[in-house]
Amino acid sequence: MAAKDKDRFVVALAGNPNAGKTTVFNNLTGGRQHVGNWPGVTVEKKEGTSKGGSLEFALVDLPGTYSLTAYSLEEVIVRDFIAGNKPDAVVNVVDASNVERNLYLTTQLLELGVPLIVALNMMDVAETRGVKIDVELLSELLGVPVVPVVALRNRGMDELTETIAMALRGEAKFRGIQVLYGREVEEEIAKLEEAIASDEALEKAFLGKYSARWLAVKLLEEDERVEEDIDRVEGPDAPVMKRLEESRRHLFTIFGEDIETVIVDNRYGFVAGIVREAVQRQREGYASRSDRIDNILTNRILGFPIFAFFMWLMFFLTFYLGKFPMRWIEALVKGFSNLVSTNITSPVWLHSLLVNGVIGGVGSVLIFLPQIFIIFICISILEDTGYMARAAFIMDRIMHWLGLHGKSFIPLVMGFGCNVPAVMATRTLESEKDRMITILVNPLMSCTARLPVYALFTAAFFAANQGTITFSLYLMGIILAIAMAKLFRKTLFRGESEPFVMELPPYRWPTAKGTVIHMWERGSLFLRKAGTVILAGSVIIWLLAYLPWGVAYGSSASIAGKIGHFFEPLVKPLGFDWRAVVALLFGFVAKEIVVSTFGALLGGGTRATISTKLQAIFTPLTAYTFMAFTLLYTPCLATVAVIRKETGSWKWAAFAVGYSLVLAWLVAFFIYRVGLLFGGK
Ligand code: GDP
Ligand code: MG
To answer: Which strands sit side by side in the sheet containing 146-148, from one edge to the other?
Structure first.
């Protein structure tokens, strides 16, 4: 019988050796079967006919494999058959007593994008071994139908044929879940996909067989077959291969490991995530090192306090370790300022530009460099060790209550560093709605750019409680992010958050190189900002504070004063004066500029003199109100740009600006008015 009559459906059986494929095959086909060999090789090929209701289909028993690499004949046969013959459905026979190992193949079948049905076989063995599987949840997570069966006793076969028939009629659910490989690898996959898709010869050669994504992943995995195929079409100098070379090199520097290992680890991470959620073992069998660590770190009771401790440690290190290098930089800035001050005394405007504008502005921000780098190191380590994935796992239930998926938690924590990479990190969220909500509330997470503002103001007004006050602002950001997420879920992006697998990649020691690269990628953004945007902003503010000729520097009569007074009525109800207006206006470009504006407007000097000058403008109450406003009001320019890029529309970028402005005003108004009621000033 021909395997490919167009008017007949073809269904393939795939699975690990000894999972029970042949038993299922015999059950479904009865006596009607044909045994031969796969073309050109002596691997046995069994074909037969089966029926689901009135629907007849050909059934093919594929060789048993653990994986879909190109290392063995069996694996190549399975791959070629699925890609070349495009069976109408693939039944993946999974040994339920050994799900962990079996699901590895399942993830690869998912990656091939075939309509998949999982026959969860050997349920009897699983039961006697004390393995409990939540079949419904497993089906949700894999995004395909899962049918529990005991092939040896012919149990569950009717349900299986019925499900197959449903799949053939196009009525079964296939969510098209993909294993995601983490931000770094995904970025390279995207570049490779683009290189593949823009190559017509490749398009033609692989048309309809493999997706660009599948080819990209296989290339990164160093799959020889795919490399050979591309060689044949393109020759070894193909642009795709050049791209691949670069990607591999980049990933190697970050992971310090073969990219193949990283990919395999990630697939196991996907499986580990599924197993931790959907499988319960009464008796603990073999546990890997990662499993044992996870038993503690993702423990239902201990998990949350442990996470809270790590967060506390992060802020503790930031403030306490940061203090020392901060003093050195401060001394450096001061020395430099004195040097310039004494040596460049004329013309007067140049002296003022350098001392007030450049050093006063940029210097007042630069001294916070150590804190910023420490937060970035902490976040890089949390991510690179694999702990961040666990934190997301622990937070999953809370995030669901918010209407978000646990994975949304990762970009939110990254927002403590910088909202720009955090918004980009939402790419790893499968659900578009989850992604939009996570992007929109991300700017409420207090990034390191706000840190200098808190540091400056708490030093001037809350010297005894700097840590607590700063912590309260972070907390305010988190609580409002939660509230807004809930609100957006109820209004703009209605619906349930769909279950997706929380990948749990194995723990790894972060490589020093990788951590430094990640820290640098984020930290250098800040340095570049100091040298460009903040510098330019400081000079402009200096100019506005200096002009027109002859007015007292930074006085009401200066241009800055005029602008500030013009907008002052808008923030009068919040207790701010015109200098706050100027700082906030320019702070839209980058929030550190709020600090450098005060530095420049108040004529530079040491932090102590700026503190004294600030005390003349703000009261403790208005200072706190001002910090809250700075935290919440409009994302900085770079964040707005990345929101527009990631959402693909100006509309959402404008919305992010608009809603946060309104939110900031309302919250600030509330704080100020309630504060006044309780006797604040
Ligand atoms: P294949 O390698 O995937 O084709 O697996 P087989 O169909 O040859 O089955 C391997 C072994 O598992 C055989 O000894 C089967 O009798 C046994 N087996 C298959 N299904 C079940 C089941 O549901 N329960 C139990 N206890 N044994 C099974
Ligand atoms: Mg067999």
So the answer is: 33-37, 44-52, 55-61, 9-15, 89-95, 116-121, 146-148
Give the C-alpha separation, 478 to 447, whole Å: 11
E strand or H helix at 404: none
Atom of ligand 1 at shortest range from CA of 24: 7
What percentage of the chain has pLDDT greater than the value 90? 33
pLDDT, position 5: 43
Nearest to residue 28, comparing CAs of 60, 74, 1? 60
Q: How many CB atoms lie within 10 A of CB 328?
A: 11
Which H or E run contains 676? helix 650-677
Residue 2: pLDDT band with limits 50, 70, 90: very low
Tell me phi and psi for residue 326, to 5 degrees.
-60, -40
Instruction: Report the DSSP pairing between strands 146-148 and 55-61.
Output: unpaired
Angle at 309 between CA 627 and CA 473, to 5 degrees: 10
CB 555 within 8 A of CB 615: no
Q: Which letter does DSSP use for residue 442 in this model?
A: G
Is the pLDDT score of 32 beyond 80? no
In this structure, the chain runs to a length of 681
Domain boundaries, the chain: 3-168, 183-281, 306-677
Query: How sure is the predictor about 6, in pLDDT bands with cuts at 50, 70 and 90?
Result: very low
Is the CB of residue 600 less than 8 Å from the CB of residue 545? yes
> pLDDT (tens digit, 9 = 90+) per residue, 164-199?
999 999 898 888 888 888 888 998 999 999 999 888
**What is the DSSP-derived secondary structure letter of residue 506?**
P
**Architecture of the domain whose range is 183-281:** Orthogonal Bundle (1.10)
Give the distance, in angstroms, between the CA of residue 228 and the centroid of all CA atoms in the same chain. Answer: 34
Q: How high does pLDDT run on average in the chain?
A: 86
Which positions ≥6 away from 325 have C-beta within 8 Å? Answer: 369, 370
Name the superfamily (CATH) of residues 3-168: P-loop containing nucleotide triphosphate hydrolases (3.40.50.300)
DSSP designation for 438? H
Beta carbon of 96 within 6 Å of any ligand 1 atom: no
Q: Return the ligand number nearest the Cα of 26.
A: 1
97 lines ligand 1 (CB under 6 A): no
Q: What is this structure's pTM? A: 0.76
Cβ of 28 closer than 6 Å to ligand 1, yes or no, is no
Residue 534 in contact with residue 365, Cβ under 8 Å? yes
Contact 376, 417 (CB under 8 A): yes
Residue % of the chain over a pLDDT of 70: 96
User: pLDDT by residue (tens digit) across 341-371?
Assistant: 888 777 878 887 887 778 877 777 787 788 8
Q: Which atom of ligand 1 is nearest to the CA of 125?
A: 26
Alpha-carbon gap, residue 265 to 260, rounded angstroms:
9
Taking only the tens place, the pLDDT of each residue in 238-296 is 888 999 999 999 998 888 888 888 899 889 999 989 998 899 876 555 666 777 888 88
The yes-or-no verdict on residue 463 having pLDDT over 70 is: yes
| Ligand 1 neighbour 124 (Cβ under 6 A) | yes
Q: At which residue do the structure tokens 């990656």 appear?
A: 111
Helix (H, G, I), strand (E, B) or coil at 51: strand
Ligand 1 atom with minimal separation from the 16 CA: 3
Q: Which residues, including other chains, have CB under 8 Å from residue 612's CB and lie 6 or more apart?
A: 460
CA of 119 to the centre of ligand 2 (A): 15
